[in-house]
């Protein structure tokens, strides 16, 4: 019997894609003129990378409220696939200079670098300290900060380079929704925790016994309600509303300014909340713990959009004053119109649909923080005068086919 070996042929589509892409693999500085088809491929690649990372991270929180941690757990692998694609895109931008200006490239590179440094630090943290029962640990915060810089660079790159039109607005909104997801991510500990603690009070548990025993041993307590409260809600009650108002609404303010249309903040918030609402049945019907979904963010987005309607007449009324004073007046009025109703929305959700405990005494600090953040965002965006530039399609290298 004769065994014959034949070479494995690459699919024609792969060869075609490689023939199209390889001519662009040339060294260049950031800000290089980018053909429009290449620009779209790069940024749709970022959409794919962030989608993989978000799916993995959404599953990851629920996983950790059910089972003992595992470095090679499926959510980690899914998130790692998105990270690998993000690293590849970072290398492409850095080497070729296509699709980014210098500021966008630096943000992407710093963000990717911080994230990659944080990964081994987080693994060491778990090896040394055992179960890490809070999303707010230093190594986890480094992961969020790295992703924040990464997405900020991508937002800037797309904002500055995408041509005007519906696609530009939709993709920009998608990137800002990913930004909101990353900023709000640590709050999911309390959103899962409050329902897990409620399940315990109703004589049920979502977590496996091995996870509960591990957490109890680490705290030096039996498996009782005090241990469960320490496991599910390990941070002060004021942190959830203050962080949600200051950090979450800052993203929505930036979204409204960058997209520049009424409804932008509402749609960005609705995109993120809609994703969380869609994941809820997918996770719970497969046996994973449920979470409180932050529906109040949609109310916050609508209030931000409405606040800009209040802000503009006030700004026009004080245009004779210094720019800083004008922005400050408008921002103070807008922030004042938003602050109270957002706390009311959180309180209403707590009573109707479930939400982490609301420390109402923290409202003053949240208001001051939002005012400072809102004013800073207005000044930064206004001073830099970000304006999108249309990238004229350039002639691709002669060796590249006309279409992918």
Automatic annotation (TrEMBL):
Keyword set includes Transmembrane: yes
Name of this protein: DUF2029 domain-containing protein
Positions of transmembrane segments: 41-65, 77-96, 103-121, 141-162, 169-185, 238-255, 262-280, 292-310, 317-343, 363-381
Keywords carried by this UniProt record: Membrane, Transmembrane, Transmembrane helix
């Amino acid at each position: 019997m004769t065994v014959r070996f034949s070479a494995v042929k690459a699919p024609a589509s792969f060869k075609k894609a490689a023939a199209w892409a390889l001519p662009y693999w040339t060294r260049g500085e950031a800000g290089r003129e980018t053909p429009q088809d290449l620009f779209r491929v790069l940024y749709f690649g970022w959409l794919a990378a962030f989608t993989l990372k978000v799916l993995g991270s959404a599953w990851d929180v629920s996983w950790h409220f059910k089972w003992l941690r595992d470095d090679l757990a499926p959510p980690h692998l899914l998130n790692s696939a998105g990270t690998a694609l993000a690293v590849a895109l970072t290398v492409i931008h850095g080497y070729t200079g296509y699709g980014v200006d210098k500021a966008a490239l630096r943000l992407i590179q710093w963000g990717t670098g911080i994230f990659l440094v944080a990964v081994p630090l987080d693994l060491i943290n778990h090896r040394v300290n055992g179960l890490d029962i809070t999303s707010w640990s230093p190594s986890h915060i480094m992961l969020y900060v790295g992703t924040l810089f990464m997405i900020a660079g991508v937002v800037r790159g797309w904002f500055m380079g995408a041509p005007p039109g519906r696609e530009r607005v939709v993709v920009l909104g998608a990137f800002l929704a990913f930004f909101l997801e990353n900023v709000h991510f640590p709050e999911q500990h309390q959103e899962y925790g409050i329902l897990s603690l409620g399940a315990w009070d109703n004589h049920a548990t979502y977590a496996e016994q091995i996870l509960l025993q591990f957490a109890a041993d680490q705290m030096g307590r039996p498996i009782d309600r005090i241990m469960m409260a320490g496991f599910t809600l390990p941070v002060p009650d004021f942190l959830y509303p203050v962080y949600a108002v200051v950090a979450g609404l800052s993203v929505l303010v930036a979204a409204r300014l960058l997209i520049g249309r009424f409804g932008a903040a509402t749609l960005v918030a609705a995109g993120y909340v809609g994703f969380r609402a869609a994941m809820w049945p997918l996770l719970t019907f497969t046996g994973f713990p449920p979470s409180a979904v932050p529906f109040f963010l949609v109310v916050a987005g609508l209030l931000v959009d409405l606040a800009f309607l209040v802000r503009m007449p006030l700004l026009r009324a004080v245009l004779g004053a210094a720019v800083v004073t004008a922005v400050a007046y408008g921002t103070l009025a807008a922030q004042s119109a938003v602050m109270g109703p957002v706390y009311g929305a959180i309180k209403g959700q707590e009573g109707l649909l479930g939400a982490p405990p609301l420390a109402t005494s923290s409202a003053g600090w949240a208001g001051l923080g939002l005012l400072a953040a809102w004013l800073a965002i207005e000044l930064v965006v206004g001073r830099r005068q970000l304006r999108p530039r249309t990238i004229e399609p350039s002639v691709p290298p002669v060796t590249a086919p006309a279409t992918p």
